[in-house]
């Protein structure tokens, strides 16, 4: 997964000048590869760890200007083998998925969902009637938070994941960092 950050010199920003550099994470050494390049001024680089901020970023999740560049670098290392938020979501354990309040069990047909969960026909009829089946041709079927059936297209599924990307990344951090 690609994470780019624009790390800026805080002192120069406070003087009215936005300086910094774009960096693709992960890097081998944050101090050497990013912070030493910011031209933080003075003869000594002592304390320069506090003299920067993230003024812009390109990532599928939110990054704050106050996020630690060291933590982001570790996260980028952990995400190197993932290309999409969907892959990250699929890698989470079931407890982490439940913490997200997103459907964690979906099938490609309502019949498969009913059969795999062992739902009796009367309960299936009730869950279908009170549910939200948008189209029988939808790509995914799942049980919502109140026990009724819902469906969504591939586009809606991807949009749902993208809208919850920051929460997915937070759960990934809890599991992996």
Largest sheet: 3 strands, antiparallel
**What is the residue-averaged pLDDT?**
90
Structural class: alpha+beta
| Number of distinct helices | 9
Query: In terms of per-residue confidence, which ranges show pLDDT below 50 for 5 or more consecutive residues?
Result: 42-46
Measured between the Cα atoms of the first and last residue, the distance is 16 Å
Which strand order do you get reading across the main beta sheet? 2-1-3
Total E-strand runs: 5
Q: How much is the radius of gyration in Å?
A: 22 Å
> What is the H-and-E element order?
EHEHEHHHHHEEHH
Helix content: 40-55%
Q: Give the strand content.
A: 15-25%
Shape: elongated
What does this structure look like?
This protein is α+β, with helices and mostly antiparallel strands. The chain has helices at 10-14, 30-33, 69-78, 85-91, 94-100, 110-117, 121-129, 154-163, 165-176, and strands at 3-9, 20-25, 52-58, 140-143, 149-152. Strands 2-1-3 form a 3-stranded antiparallel sheet. A two-stranded antiparallel sheet has the order 4-5. The chain is elongated. Pfam families: ArdA (PF07275).
Helix and strand arrangement:
Blueprint: E1 3-9, H1 10-14, E2 20-25, H2 30-33, E3 52-58, H3 69-78, H4 85-91, H5 94-100, H6 110-117, H7 121-129, E4 140-143, E5 149-152, H8 154-163, H9 165-176
Antiparallel strand pairs: 1-2, 1-3, 4-5
Helix pairs in contact: 4-9, 5-9
Q: Briefly, what is this?
A:
The chain has 177 residues and is α+β, with helices and mostly antiparallel strands. The protein has helices at residues 10-14, 30-33, 69-78, 85-91, 94-100, 110-117, 121-129, 154-163, 165-176; strands at 3-9, 20-25, 52-58, 140-143, 149-152. A hairpin with a 5-residue loop joins strand 4 (140-143) and strand 5 (149-152).
């Amino acid at each position: 997964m690609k994470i780019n950050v624009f790390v800026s010199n805080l002192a120069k920003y406070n003087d009215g000048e936005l300086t910094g550099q774009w960096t693709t994470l992960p890097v081998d050494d944050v101090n050497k590869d990013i912070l030493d390049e910011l031209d933080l001024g003075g003869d000594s680089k002592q304390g320069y760890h506090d003299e920067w901020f993230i003024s812009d970023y390109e990532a599928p999740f939110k990054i704050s200007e106050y996020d630690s560049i060291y933590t982001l670098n570790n996260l980028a290392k952990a995400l190197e083998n993932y290309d999409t938020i969907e892959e990250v979501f699929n890698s989470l354990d079931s407890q982490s998925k439940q913490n997200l309040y997103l459907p964690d069990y979906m099938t490609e047909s309502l019949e498969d969902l009913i059969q795999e969960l062992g739902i009796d026909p009367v309960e299936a009829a009730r869950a279908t009637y009170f549910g939200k089946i948008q189209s029988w041709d939808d790509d995914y079927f799942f049980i919502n938070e109140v026990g009724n059936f819902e469906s969504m297209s591939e586009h809606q599924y991807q949009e749902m994941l993208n809208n919850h990307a920051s929460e997915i990344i937070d759960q990934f951090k809890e599991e992996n960092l």
